[in-house]
């Protein structure tokens, strides 16, 4: 039986852990907000109505692909492509290739930075493994100008941040929605996670600052893992309506 991602791959460990996956979610929430293609997510009305649910669905779909058999993974990628084609038809315009690449770039970048904040530094070989998974997704989606390896991705991602990001009215509105749906304390926690893992350009556009108040809390959280209390803590920081989504992030 052939899987899209080998069972011993580091990316299965990354995406099989709910805390790491939630950090990836937090990073994507930041970078989506400053991406120049964020208007596409506003077009359907789903993003402002339920921004956390919309971002959760992106993460859950990615996780589904990572843990599926090869044929099922390709079908899931095709389903994502089909959904976006319908949006394009309704709007009468085409989502640019760079916007799709940007999403894959986010998933690569936050897979690395989230795991390194919560666990340990990744080796060059492990970073190559992470890159390869999302590279193959992009190739199956027939995306052009994909970087060929992790080192090329680092350069391409740096260029993307310069060309494809800005602060707009969508940025401001999206963060208002985050605060509305999370409440003040969880919203502050979200921003502190983002300070830890997002690139400097994104941090500056969002005025997140650079003081990492969350670091002492993370040390306590890592201790909680040894006591098997981590699941209880993760459950406690999410609004009740997203508990079911949390269960989807846990791969047994």
Q: Could you explain how this protein is built, in words?
A:
- It is a single chain.
- It contains 15 helices and no strands.
- With 252 residues, the chain is mostly helical.
- The protein has one domain.
- Helix 10 packs across helix 11 (184-197).
- The radius of gyration is 17 Å and the shape is globular.
Quick gist of this model?
This protein has 15 helices and no strands. It is mainly alpha-helical and 252 residues long.
Spatial separation of the terminal alpha carbons: 18 Å
Largest sheet: none
Q: What series of H and E elements makes up the topology? A: HHHHHHHHHHHHHHH
For the secondary structure, the number of strands is 0
Give me the number of helical elements.
Answer: 15
**Low-pLDDT runs:** none
- Write down the overall geometry: globular
When the domains are counted, the total is: 1
SS-derived structural category: mainly alpha
- Rounded to an integer, what's the Rg over CA atoms? 17 Å
Mean pLDDT: 85
State the main characteristics.
globular, 252 residues, 15 helices, mainly alpha
Fold topology:
Elements: H1 10-15, H2 18-34, H3 38-43, H4 46-49, H5 51-66, H6 70-91, H7 97-118, H8 124-140, H9 150-163, H10 169-182, H11 184-197, H12 200-205, H13 215-226, H14 230-237, H15 243-249
